[in-house]
Design a protein that fits this description.
With about 230 residues, the chain is mainly α. It is built from 13 helices and no strands.
């Protein structure tokens, strides 16, 4: 996996030199959080993602076994694929996510990344095209989502994201999304991502409690990563 990560460095370095909206000293995780949940311009978001990928590669050069750097590198490749709809990046991201999940089956971050890969592809391309073009499957995504929540050690992030992804996938699944959102409200918030997910769950519960799955699904699209990008 590390060779795969380093192999992409040459193509990433130039893009990572772009001026972006986050400090150069920010960690890859911080940069990706800003890109996914705060940035509203697609080009700026893409530059931020590339900055995070480059920074993660620097960390991997210093410590090839850094789990956090591996996670952030893989997340960056997945985010770049989402923004550019590049099939090569999408397939590379899937390989990285599957490798991370296999190397530590108890890591909820690897599971949520794998879930997001499948379910985001279906949301972006539709179930048929996503399946034919890159092999995305709803069943695989929802199973990984369930594992992420189960392994999440009581953090708000995992059930919060699960609530958003479940109702986006199926606007009739009001009960499942509500259960996950309520779990997020009870979850711990030790990181910015947990706090973002908990706030999202609070917002999502308004239409969910009204039984309006369609409105909840539309809201979920704006609360998931890159949902703030100007159309």
């Amino acid at each position: 996996m590390i060779k795969t990560m380093r192999g992409a460095l040459a193509g990433i370095a130039a893009a990572g030199m772009l001026v972006v909206a986050v400090p150069a000293a920010a960690s890859p995780r911080e940069t990706l959080t800003v890109a996914a949940f705060q940035t509203t311009d697609k080009n700026v978001a893409l530059a931020e993602v590339n900055q995070a990928i480059t920074a993660a590669n620097v960390l991997l050069a210093a410590d090839a076994h850094s789990r956090d750097a591996q996670i952030q590198y893989a997340a960056g490749i997945g985010y770049r694929a989402k923004l550019t709809r590049n099939a090569k990046d999408a397939k590379a991201a899937r390989h990285l996510f599957e490798t991370l999940a296999a190397s530590n089956p108890n890591d909820p971050e690897a599971q949520i990344l794998l879930a997001g890969w499948h379910l985001d592809a279906i949301a972006d391309l539709g179930p048929f095209l996503a399946g034919v073009a890159i092999g995305a499957k709803a069943a695989t995504g929802t199973a990984a989502l369930d594992r992420a929540v189960a392994l999440g050690r009581g953090r708000a992030f995992f059930p919060g994201i699960a609530a958003l992804m479940r109702i986006r996938l199926d606007n009739g699944n009001v009960a499942g999304a509500t259960q996950a959102a309520q779990l997020a409200l009870q979850g711990a918030t030790p990181t910015p991502l947990d706090r973002i997910a908990r706030r999202a769950a609070e917002q999502l519960l308004v239409p969910l409690r009204a039984g309006d799955g369609h409105a909840a699904a539309e809201l979920a699209k704006t609360l998931l990563p890159f949902g703030r990008l100007a159309k």
